[in-house]
Amino acid sequence: MATWEDGHLRGIVDWDGARVGDPARDVAVARNDLAIFIGPSAADLFLERYESLRGPLTDLAYWDVHVSLGPIKWLAHWVAGYRELGVDLPLSVARARLEIWVRRALERLFRTPGVSLGLTLFVVGMGYVAWTVSADGDRWALLPGLVVAGIGMGGTWTPIFDLATRTLEPRLAGAASGVLSTIQELGAVLATAVIGAVLQNRLAIALHDQAMLYAQRLPEDFRASFVAGFSDAAKQGFEVVGAGQSGAGLELPPGVPTDVAAQLAQLAHAVFGHAFVDAMRPAMGIPLVLLLVAAVLVALVARQPKAVASPERTRAVA
Question: What's the whole-model pTM score?
């Protein structure tokens, strides 16, 4: 129904949808069309402008999902309607925009506290592993920490990739994938170098300390050479070839009694195992501290108020 006054069109009332209800539904309808017609960024800009005039809305995530059910089923008809208005919108582009929009709406509807909580859970889980692990311990004792860390990873990667790609145009997907992969690989290389250097340094110190400790269980004639073997290995570098090897590469001189040789092999394995655990903790501590700092920064950024779009920016996008 159209309303006229003095020969001028004053308004159009859609009686099929006229009702008293949540204004967030009408906003969701407008946002849904903007997301398909222009892109999700336009829908977000519309919401910023609306809330700056009216105030914040509640339950918008629910209505965004509810309203998107129509174009999910009838997207081809939606695009045909745009063409009747003179807008040439390819179906593939509309589908890609709708997929991004629906994914974001579902994530907001079933939102967890976000990246900050995911990072914190990962730090807590891996910190528990670093605190619990021991050379003689049971591997199942690490399970609670690994489970918590896994939950944290699940709550971290999806929101991060959503933040990185939410305003991405479909035509740039290939290039963006290459950029993200490059950043991940570069970060992995830098982190491996730093953690590896710390682990190498701490392992050299721990090997000497553990060798001094376990050498007291050997006959006195073999103590000095036992400690020297690990000290030399620490200076020359480590080669851990396979499972069950000590990594020290001790070579026994000829004529060593069989019982002493067996004791040397057992103690060498114990020295390397305890030294590696002692060196692992500070090496793990560096990335965990950085991740905890990142979690705090993310939480602080999330608490910042959203910028209100200016009328000029609104008109430019429109």
Answer: 0.58
| Residue 12, Cβ density class (10 Å: 0-12 exposed, 13-18 middle, ≥19 buried) | exposed
Confirm whether 313 is domain-assigned. Answer: no
The answer to whether residues 138 and 161 belong to one domain is yes
Distance of alpha carbon 250 from alpha carbon 248, whole angstroms? 6
Tokens of 68: 């998107």
Q: How confident is the model at residue 281 (pLDDT cuts 50, 70, 90)?
A: very high
Q: Are residues 155 and 281 in the same domain?
A: yes
Q: Annotate 143-159 with b (16+ C-beta within 10 A) or e (fewer).
A: eebeebbebbeebbeeb
Query: Which residues, listed in sequence order, are joined to residue 51 by a DSSP beta bridge?
Result: none
pLDDT in tens, 23-71: 888 899 899 888 888 888 888 899 999 989 888 887 888 888 888 888 8
Residue 52 and residue 127 in one domain: no
Contacts of 141 (CB under 8 A, 6+ apart): 132, 133
* Buried-exposed string 90-101: b where 16+ CB fall within 10 A, e elsewhere: eeeebbbbbebb
Q: Is 304 exposed, middle or buried (0-12, 13-18, 19+ CB in 10 A)?
A: exposed
Residue with tokens 């004053």: 10
Single-letter amino acid code for the residue at 252: L
Distance, in Å, from the CA atom of 123 to the CA atom of 80, rounded to the nearest integer, reads: 50
The total of other beta-carbon atoms located within 10 Å of residue 139's CB is 8
Angstrom distance (rounded) from CA 109 to CA 24: 14
Q: How many C-beta atoms surround the C-beta of residue 88 within 10 A?
A: 7
State the total domains in the chain. 2
**Domain limits at 221?**
117-302
- Note the pLDDT tens digit of each residue in 63-107: 888 888 888 888 888 788 878 777 788 888 888 888 888 887 877
Strand spans (E) along the chain = 2-5, 8-12
